[in-house]
Amino acid sequence: MPSRSVFSVSLPPPLPMPSMMAPPVIHHRRHNHQAHFLPAILAGTLVLTCFILIIITIFTYRKLYRNRTAPSDLKSPNHNHCRRFSYNLIRRATASFSPSNRLGHGGFGSVYKAVVPSSSQPLAVKILDSSGSLQGEREFHNELSLASSLDCPHIVSLLGFASDRRGRRLVLIYELMENRSLQDALLDRKCEELMEWNKRFEIAIDIAKGLEYLHHSCEPPVIHGDIKPSNILLDGDFKAKIGDFGLARLKTEDLMIEGECVKKRDVNEDNGSILEETESVVTAYEESAGGGNGVDRSPESCVVRVFDAEVSPETDTVTLSPEVGVDKGSAAEGCFDKISVESGKDLNGNCKKGGSRRDWWWKQDNGAGSESGRVKDYVMEWIGSEIKKERPKNEWVASPSSTENNGSSSKLEMKKDRIRKKEKNRKPREWWKEEFCEELTKKKKKRGLNSSNVGEMWWQKDEEVVVQERKKRKNKTSRGSIDWWLDGFSGELRTGRRSSQDWASGDIPKSGGISSTPSMRGTVCYIAPEYGGGGLLSEKCDVYSFGVLILVLISGRRPLQVTASPMSEFERANLISWARQLAYNGKLLDLVDPSIHSLDKDQALLCITIALLCLQRSPSKRLTMKDIVEMLTGEAEPPHLPFEFSPSPPSNFPFKSQKKAR
Ligand SMILES: Nc1ncnc2c1ncn2[C@@H]1O[C@H](COP(=O)(O)OP(=O)(O)OP(=O)(O)O)[C@@H](O)[C@H]1O
Question: Which CATH code fits 179-251+523-648?
Answer without folding.
Answer: 1.10.510.10
